[in-house]
Amino acid sequence: MLSYMTKIRVWLCVLVACKITLALNNGLALTPPMGWLAWQRFRCTIDCDTFPDECVSEQLFMTTADLLVSEGYDKVGYKYVVIDDCWMMHNRTADGKLQADEKRFPHGIKALADYVHSKGLKFGIYESVGTKSCEGYAGIKGYEKIDAQTFAEWGVDYVKLDGCYTDERNMDTNFPQFGKYLNETGRPMIYSCCWPFYQEGKGMQVNYTLVSQSCNLWRNYGDIQESYASLFDVLDNFAVKQDIWAQYAGPGQWNDPDMLLIGNFALSHEQSQTQMALWAILAAPLFMSNKLSTVQPNFKKILQNTEVIGVNQDKLGIQGKRIYKDQGIEIWTKPVEPKEIEHYSYAIAFVSRRTMGTPFSYNITLNNLGLNNPNGYKIKNLYDDNTTVKILKPDSLLKVKVNPSGVVLIRANIISKYDYIHGPYF
Predict the structure, then answer these.
(1) How many CB atoms lie within 10 A of CB 31?
(2) What is the pTM of this model?
(3) If pLDDT is split at 50, 70 and 90, which confidence band does 25 have?
(4) What is the annotated signal peptide range for this record (predicted)?
(5) Catalytic residue at 395?
(6) Confidence band for 420, pLDDT divided at 50, 70 and 90
(7) For residue 396, which of 31, 319, 352, 392 is within the disulfide window of CB 3.0 to 4.6 Å?
């Protein structure tokens, strides 16, 4: 006879297993994928004579792979090196295959993928579901099966499929079909879709059940741009749609708010911590888009903060939500492990939208945040190297001081009734 706790564990395992099987049947991206993607920082720069270090070329991606390893990004989870648009020729070969630009990728995509793999990393590539890519290069329409097989032969591990030059009304058919072709190759390839973004933009009803069954991750909103205003434009739209979108996120299937701007031009140190914290809360894919050789140490520290990454990579895979707005402070929470029956641990982000030039003190009880485990919580500030772990009960007051356009990111781990507490620490 199974004990009550054993039955609970079996039931939870069944629920998790059922959720995973509803996702694209490739067993991939059980936590949000992490890596580096070219578009935001490098766009369609193809003039290698004028911009030899910044043009879309095999050298850019080889250098990036080198730096992901030498700078330690791979060790904290950044594994994917992903090409975006403008890598290919406008025309195909005589037998209908995609071909890389011969000047900028003289050794071909297979050789580049092999190089990335030799560094212990994964390789990703871009295409568009229509007749052309968004920048006017060869699209996959009419060549879907050939392209899926070509990607497999090249050693691709991740495919980003854009939605240009096609009718949005056909996306419910052509995006799932290409995912099927990818699966049929037998090579594991994460499938990233820009499908919902295009339909949302046309005011269409998006079939998120179908999206989540067909893709590992998907873009819901427009491209993030190099500004703090753009960052919060994305976040505000995620907050407005969170009750719809969040229910489809989980192991193998993720809403994608787009790339990390950290280490580029626009975001301050405080704003960079804010993006990293909220991408962690949202269980978002973590794809940097920066010039790794120029990332300053303080931004590198943000990108490599293993405790914040741990929130993002939490095995439960629950997308967090904005739960409260008060006096220019937004509160976002995400349930995380460890959990005990009905009580979760939480990551809590206190985000300042205030522009007054002084930090703002904010106090709230754990109960008012929805944290009601009677045994209390271990509280830690994930951005404070000198923080000590505190023990708080549900009726305790949590006190934070948030810098303008900054964030305080707290992890509140449940205290089990079986834990033994020695003084104020564990």
Answers:
(1) 19
(2) 0.92
(3) confident
(4) 1-23
(5) no
(6) low
(7) 392
